[in-house]
Amino acid sequence: MIPPKPPNEPARLANLREYAILDSLPEEEFDDLTTIAAQICGTPVSLISLIDEDRQWFKSAQGMPPGWPQTSRDLAFCAYNIMEPKNTLMVRDARLDPRFENNDLVYNDLNVIFYAGVPLVSKEGFALGSLCVIDHVPRELSQSQLDALERLGRQVIKLFELRRTLSEAEQVARERAQAYAILRDFSHVIAHDLKAPLRNIRQAGEMLEEDYLPLLPEDGVQLLHMIQERARDASQMIDGVLRYSQITRSLKDAHEDVSIPQCIAQAERQVSNGGNCRVTYIGKVDRLYTSSIALLQTFQNLIGNALKFNDKEDCQVIIDCIHERGRGYVFTVEDNGPGIEPENQQAIFRLFHSIGLGKTQSHGVGLTIVQRLIEAVGGSIRVESTMGTGTKFIFVIPD
What we know:
- It is an enzyme of class 2 (transferase).
- Its EC number is 2.7.13.3.
- The protein is an alpha+beta fold.
- The protein has helices at residues 9-18, 28-41, 78-81, 104-107, 143-193, 195-212, 218-246, 260-270, 292-309, 365-376, and strands at 45-51, 55-62, 70-72, 89-91, 114-121, 127-135, 256-259, 278-281, 287-290, 316-324, 328-335, 355-357, 360-362, 380-386, 390-397.
- The protein has three domains: 9-168, Beta-Lactamase (2-Layer Sandwich), CATH 3.30.450.40; 194-252, no CATH class; 253-399, Heat Shock Protein 90 (2-Layer Sandwich), CATH 3.30.565.
- Helix 2 packs antiparallel against helix 5 (143-193), helix 8 (260-270) crosses helix 9 (292-309) and helix 9 (292-309) runs antiparallel to helix 10 (365-376).
- The longest helix is centred in the middle third of the chain and has 51 residues, at 143-193.
- The chain is elongated, with a radius of gyration of 33 Å.
C-alpha cells in the first residue's frame, strides 16, 4: 500500500528544506539521541528519518545494515507517521497490518516487524519525519518507554532548530563579509575616481581666489567660498569612507599587552592637542591584553572630538578604567564640552550623521569607526550627555 500525503505537503516540504539538513554528514549529537532511544526501548534499530518528496532519508541510523542511507518513500513507515503529527505511531507486528503486510522492508534484510515512531514536528507545525525504533520480532512499548521516546523526539527538533539558527548566522556572516568586500572595492573606486577630480576643483578654486577674487561681486565671492567649502567636505567624507572600509584590516594583527597611559599619551600626540585640552587618566588599571590599534584609535577619536567641539576656556577630558569580573574593562571618556541633544545621542554612531555644535560641523565618521572597532574586539559602546555640561562615552572591552 502506498502511503498518503499530508494536505499541506508543498508547505511541509518547503519547511523541511529550510533546515538544510537533507544529505548532510553524520553528526554525533543526533547519533547520541538514536543510541539512547534504542537503549531505552530495548530495540536493535533506531532512526531519525526525514520524509522528502520521494524518499525517506536517515539523518541518524543506529543498527542499520551498511548501504541504507535512505529508502523509497512508498516503503517508509514514517510516511504514515507524519499524517498524524500529534500521535505516536506503533505497529506491533507489520506482517499483520494491512498497510505493511506486503511492504518489502518487512521481508528484506531490514526485517521491520515492530515499529514505533514519534513525529518530528517543527515550530511551524509541520511533521518533517520521525524518531523511530525498530525490532525484528513482534513487541510493544511500555508507557514510560513511549514517554521517553517522545521527549527524545523533542530534543531532535531542538537540535534541528539550533542547526538552522547556526546556518542562518553563518549566512549573515557571509553576507556581511561580502558587503565589507564590496565596500573595500568601492573605496578603491572612490580613491582613484573621485579624489582626483575633487582635488582639481579645490585647486581651481584656490587659483580663482588668488587671481580673480577682487574682480568678483559679493555674491560671486560667496559662491566661490561655498564651492571650496563643499569640496573640502566631500574630500573629508571620502577619507572617512576609506578609513571606515579599511579600519578592521589592522585588527587581524595579534593582540598584545597594552599600557593604557602610554596609549592615551600617544593618542594625544596624534590629535595635536598641544596643551589646548587637559587629558587626565584616573583609572587604576595600568595594562590590558587587547588590540592596541583598536584602543589607540578609539582614544584618538574621542579625545579629538572633545578638542574639536570644546566650547570652554578650560577644556578637560577625564578617562577612567575599572575591571568588572565577568564583564571586562569598563572605560569612561568624559569631557566638559557643549553636550549632545538627546535625539542625537544614538544617531551619532551612524555613518555620515551630520551634527552641528556651535561653529563646528561633524559628519560622524569617527564615531562610526569607534563603534566598529569596539564591536570588532567583542565590546560595546554607549554615550551619556547633558547639554551645556559635557559628554561621557562608556565602552567595554571584554577580558
